[in-house]
Design brief:
Chain A: Pfam families: BPD_transp_2. Chain A: GO terms for molecular function: transmembrane transporter activity. Chain A: It is found in: Cell membrane. The complex is a heterodimer. Chain A is an all-alpha fold. Chain A has a single domain, classed as ABC transporter involved in vitamin B12 uptake, BtuC (Orthogonal Bundle), CATH 1.10.3470. Helix content of chain A is 70%, strand content 0%. In chain A, helix 1 runs parallel beside helix 7, helix 1 crosses helix 11 and helix 11 crosses helix 12. The longest helix of chain A has 33 residues. Chain A is globular. The termini of chain A are far apart. Chain B contains 11 helices and 10 strands. Chain B is of the alpha/beta class. In chain B, strand 1 and strand 2 form a beta hairpin. Chain B has 2 domains: 172 residues, P-loop containing nucleotide triphosphate hydrolases (Rossmann fold, 3-Layer(aba) Sandwich), CATH 3.40.50.300; 77 residues, no CATH class. The N terminus of chain B is likely disordered. Chain B has a 6-stranded mixed β-sheet, sandwiched between helices. A 4-stranded antiparallel β-sheet of chain B has the order 2-1-4-5. Classes of the chains: A mainly alpha, B alpha/beta. The interface between A and B is medium-sized, with 23 and 32 residues.
């Protein structure tokens, strides 16, 4: 019984880990291709989720501004948009965002120190957060794209019949896992088997060499930011469905940090495995050790684990080892 | 008058073939430092053109101007009879100029095969959609390009390392892979920045043979920078000699060897 309960905790932990991996994935993509640590990744997820809700509910963008400026009272268009169109439209908006970021920010900072680019993404994070609020309002929004939620009865019954103990597993978590797996498979397929993917890997490896074989860095950056935007949208949908679309959504980026330290900033498999380890580790730790130290270990476990990694294996599990030749 | 009339060149290749690229009065400055000072020379179809000179003479800068990595402040570059507007390096590459680098710029994380395949990126035209479905034209294209790449792999005798990640290869082989990637683009002009730097004698001989073979078999026009005078004289049809950013000699290896200015730049002149 004890063992079964621990297994249930483990499964739930793994599924929570998938959600962390989704966020971490966006970081890795951009970091690999352009060496930029994109602080705004979490806010991009929030912005994508807000935009999706806004579109689906037929909200008028910038309603507050319009009302204040023209003394009218608009709020909704009065229609609703099906989830699938909403997602497609939001994905397009994220591509537009990628183009804007490249044209307005990255283009002007080519060749600058990584810390400068990092600072620029902090600015971007603040800007996007404000833009999201102004466009769609700062209220807590409910996002429902039709993903099933709640405890899966069939799994509970099946495991109860089979093991004599019913596993409580959220159907949303199962869907999140399936979708994340599909997303990762698509990303791997894209980067390994298409010419754009090959160009992306080339840019990630060496900018000079990429230029010399005729790859446009700007095109690749736009592409990578678009993909990261799409990953942010998926993460935003999952997290938004789970806990509502609100400011705290952007803080999931903080959870992605320990994932990246574990997995390595430059490895897509690392982001996945790192997320799984963190998700699983923090649930199991809470279950076994939590009661001894008064609980609430989930708040800090991931960071302490990351700290240990920084001491003993700074490049992460899958990251490229930094060797300076002298 | 510095420029020698074309008719005086003795080798067949240099004298009679049409001009492929013409560099006119190129000047390149970095702030106050003049890296290249008013240099003109041409590159003819199918020849091996060397640029030599002591350290810091501006050879690599010259190559970077040709490949678009640097944009000169003054001067014109004519390619295939047309004046080339200022371009980004990737646009120059798409015109058919492939290059290697002095300190090797390969994609370390990729296999030798993948590295060479990147050289053919601009030859691949099928849409992302058909590639994703691995469908019709995309499949044919990938197969054709693979066949081309395999030819180059055979040519440069690197069959046994085709699946090896490039990061693990020794220096000499890396240089060869870089050459293979440049060749994969089927360039109009192949630019080699010190292709033999840091190699041992055997590796140098191999590389020399490959350069000559590329020129013979594919008729590729080659511009190369080299330190080793002996190597340059054996390989090239015509040589440009640079010193302190200026051109001090231009002609066949024999002509250049006899040029007093070149001798003084390389050997120093006794002052009385």
């Amino acid at each position: 019984m004890e063992f079964l309960y621990a297994s249930e905790v483990l499964v739930n932990g793994l599924m929570a880990g998938v959600m962390y991996s989704l966020v971490a994935l966006g970081f890795v993509l951009i970091y690999k291709a352009s060496g930029v640590f994109n602080y705004a990744q979490g806010v991009m997820a929030l912005f994508a989720a807000m935009t999706l809700v806004g579109i689906m509910e037929g909200r008028v963008p910038f309603a507050h501004l319009i009302n204040a400026a023209f003394g009218v009272h608009v709020d909704r268009f009065g229609w609703t948009v099906p989830a699938i169109f909403g997602i497609a439209l939001t994905a397009l908006i994220m591509v537009g965002l990628a183009i804007a970021v490249e044209k307005l920010v990255l283009k002007h900072l080519v060749g600058q120190e990584p810390i400068i680019l990092f600072m620029a993404t902090i600015g971007l994070a603040w800007f996007l957060e404000g833009l999201g609020d102004v466009m769609w309002g700062a209220d807590v929004k409910v996002l429902d794209v039709g993903l099933p939620q709640g405890i899966s009865d069939s799994i509970e019954t099946a495991t109860n019949n089979w093991l004599g103990y019913g596993f409580f597993i959220d159907r949303l978590d199962i869907w999140a896992t399936v979708i994340a797996a599909a997303l990762v498979a698509a990303l791997v397929g894209f980067s390994q088997y298409t010419k754009q993917g090959r160009a992306m890997r080339a840019v990630a490896d060496d900018h000079q060499a990429a230029l010399s074989v005729g790859i446009s860095l700007r095109f690749i950056w736009i592409m990578v930011w678009s993909i990261a935007g799409f990953v942010a949208l998926v993460a935003g949908i999952m997290w938004g469905t789970k806990s509502g679309v609100q400011f705290s959504l952007s803080l999931i980026a903080l959870k992605a940090l320990p994932v990246l330290m574990l997995g390595g900033f430059t490895s897509i498999p690392g982001a996945i495995v790192g997320g799984l380890i963190i998700g699983m580790g923090e649930k199991l730790f809470e279950y076994f050790i939590g009661p001894m130290v008064g609980g609430a270990t989930e708040n800090w476990f991931a960071y302490v684990l990351a700290l240990l990694f920084l001491v003993f294996r700074p490049q992460g599990l899958f990251g490229e080892r930094i060797i300076e030749r002298v | 008058m510095i420029a020698t009339p074309a008719a005086e060149f003795s080798t067949d290749k240099g004298a009679t073939r049409p001009v492929l690229m013409d560099l006119k009065n190129i000047t390149l400055r970095f702030g106050g430092v003049v890296a290249i000072k008013d240099i003109s020379f041409d590159i003819r179809e199918g020849e091996i053109r060397a640029i030599i000179g002591p350290n810091g003479a501006g050879k690599s800068s010259m190559l970077n101007v040709i490949s678009g990595f640097y944009v000169p402040q003054q001067g014109e570059i004519w390619f295939e009879g047309q004046k080339r507007p200022p371009m980004k390096p990737y646009q120059v590459a798409r015109l058919g100029l492939a290059r290697t680098f002095q300190n090797i710029a390969l994609f370390d994380g990729m296999s030798v095969l993948d590295n060479i395949m990147t050289g053919r990126l601009n030859k691949m035209k099928s849409s992302l959609f058909s590639q994703a479905l691995w469908w019709g034209p995309a499949e044919r294209e990938e197969v054709e390009n693979r066949a081309q790449v395999e030819k180059i792999i055979d040519f440069l005798e690197i069959q046994n390392i085709r699946k090896t990640p490039v990061g693990r290869l020794p220096y000499g082989l890396k240089k060869r892979v870089e050459l293979a990637r440049a060749l994969a683009a089927e360039p109009r002009i192949l630019l080699l920045d010190e292709p033999m730097a840091g190699m041992n004698v055997e590796e140098k001989e191999d590389m020399c043979r490959f350069i000559l073979d590329v020129n013979d078999e594919f008729g590729t026009t080659i511009v190369l920078i080299e330190h080793d005078m002996g190597v340059v004289m054996d390989l090239s049809d015509r040589v440009v000699v640079m010193d302190y950013g200026r051109k001090i000699g231009d002609g066949t290896p024999d002509e250049v060897r006899a040029n007093p200015e070149v001798i003084s730049a390389y050997l120093g002149v006794a002052h009385e």
